[in-house]
């Protein structure tokens, strides 16, 4: 009963069949009988497990359809399709909206026909819906372009102001003040500054890429342009290209594995092997090294009359792991002994021990990183204080809104202090004593005589 199914190219019908798999599960079930029969011949499963295996393979079929939907190459301007374009005429094709979207309902579009829009779109919607879709996409692209222009102008203005401030600071012989970590000089920039700089550069490239894509969508009157279809690939286009290449390599390797009836992905030829095969090969190589090291350890133990041979005594991953654990335990033991021998110390950190070990080295690196981060933030705090002192609205432009608000706020805050100062002065005057009149007159006379003597000497 399986022979007619094997002769009807069910696999090809399954791969390029209807995108709506839920409407044609029975045909998919028939096409899945072929790999099931292949596994039965290899005696990997029993025929009584047909229902369970068929259900699992149906789930795999649905997943393959989803992956295949996103791996279909489309021309610029196409909407996200779910099936490949099997029939095309001058780069244009159409799926009738009133029919099932299977292979028979795909028909070429004649020149001058109004059944489909230009650009090779899959018209899986009515004309009105397609028109509304294009108008919406065009409106979004226009808004995106306006946002890009605004962001670009603000960025250029801020960058120009920053360059002017740096030039003036260099002319004055001082370091320019900054607020953002990325604006620090090369000598003072820290981890946060480098991270922010790389993130800002990446976002700037993304914004430029989206601006170019919005211009292309507007120029093509509302056609959808994917990042990978842009004239100049940016970060999003490169990311989409990598994802598609990754999934496409998995798809091609799995097809080759089915065609060659290869069971394991790593058993394919190196030219046909995909990411799954490479990953399986790496994992298999790791366990192979463990098996070989354990087999060698067993042979050495038998040669020594049953004496246990530790994994560290033979090369292998387990030996390296035991070596690292041994170094940690030895360092902790020496740290405990040093703590017992030292008087007046209740805590000895791993990085402060004579033999730091792996834990001490890790702690030392972590503290160096935190110290560098703390220095960077303290320097930035000082620059923020200088920046706020130099750019206070109350001093730079007192008549502005911010200047008036700051002046009023400062006045409100300082008024209680001024009132307390007046009260203290009045209290001081109330508790003061009057000066003696005789002493005051004698003091004035002595001062007048000293002034006369000085004038005579000058004469």
UniProtKB/TrEMBL annotation:
Spans through the membrane: 50-72
Residue span of region Disordered: 104-126, 437-459
Entry keyword set: Membrane, Transmembrane, Transmembrane helix
Protein name (database record): Uncharacterized protein
């Amino acid at each position: 009963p399986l022979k007619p199914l094997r002769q009807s190219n069910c696999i090809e019908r399954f791969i390029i069949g209807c995108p709506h798999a839920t409407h044609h599960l029975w045909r998919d079930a028939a096409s899945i009988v072929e790999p099931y029969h292949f596994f039965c011949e290899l005696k990997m499963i029993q025929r009584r497990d047909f229902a369970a295996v068929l259900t699992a393979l149906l789930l795999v079929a649905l997943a393959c359809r989803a992956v295949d939907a996103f791996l279909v190459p489309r021309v610029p301007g196409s909407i996200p399709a779910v099936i490949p374009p099997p029939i095309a005429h001058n780069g244009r094709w159409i799926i009738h909206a009133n029919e099932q979207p299977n292979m028979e309902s795909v028909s070429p579009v004649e020149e001058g026909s109004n059944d489909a829009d230009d650009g090779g779109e899959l018209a899986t919607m009515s004309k009105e819906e397609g028109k509304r879709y294009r108008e919406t996409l065009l409106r979004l692209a226009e808004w995106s372009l306006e946002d890009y222009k605004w962001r670009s102008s603000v960025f250029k203005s801020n960058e120009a102001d920053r360059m002017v401030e740096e030039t003036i600071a260099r002319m004055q012989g001082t370091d320019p003040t900054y607020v953002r970590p990325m604006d620090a000089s090369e000598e003072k920039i820290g981890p946060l500054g480098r991270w922010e700089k790389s993130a800002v550069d990446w976002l700037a490239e993304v914004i430029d890429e989206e601006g170019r894509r919005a211009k292309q969508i507007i120029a093509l009157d509302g056609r959808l342009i994917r990042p990978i279809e842009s004239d100049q690939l940016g970060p999003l286009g490169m990311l989409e290209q990598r994802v598609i290449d990754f999934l496409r390599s998995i798809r091609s390797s799995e097809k080759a594995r089915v065609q060659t009836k290869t069971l394991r992905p790593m058993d394919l030829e190196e030219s046909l092997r995909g990411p799954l095969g490479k990953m399986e090969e790496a994992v298999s190589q790791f366990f192979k090294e463990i098996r070989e090291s354990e087999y060698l350890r067993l042979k050495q133990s038998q040669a020594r009359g049953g004496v246990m041979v530790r994994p560290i005594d033979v090369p292998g991953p387990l030996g390296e792991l035991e070596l690292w654990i041994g170094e940690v335990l030895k360092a902790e033991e020496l740290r405990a002994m040093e703590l017992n021998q030292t008087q007046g110390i209740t805590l000895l950190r791993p990085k402060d021990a004579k033999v730091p070990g792996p834990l001490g080295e890790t702690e030392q690196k972590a503290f160096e990183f935190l110290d560098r981060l703390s220095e960077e933030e303290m320097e930035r705090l000082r620059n923020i204080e200088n920046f706020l002192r130099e750019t206070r609205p109350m001093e730079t432009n007192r008549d502005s809104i911010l200047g008036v608000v700051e002046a009023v706020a400062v006045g409100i805050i300082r008024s209680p202090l001024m009132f307390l100062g007046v009260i203290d002065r009045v209290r001081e005057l109330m508790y003061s004593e009057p000066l003696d009149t005789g002493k005051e007159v004698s003091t004035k006379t002595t001062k007048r005589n000293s002034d006369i003597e000085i004038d005579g000497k000058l004469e």
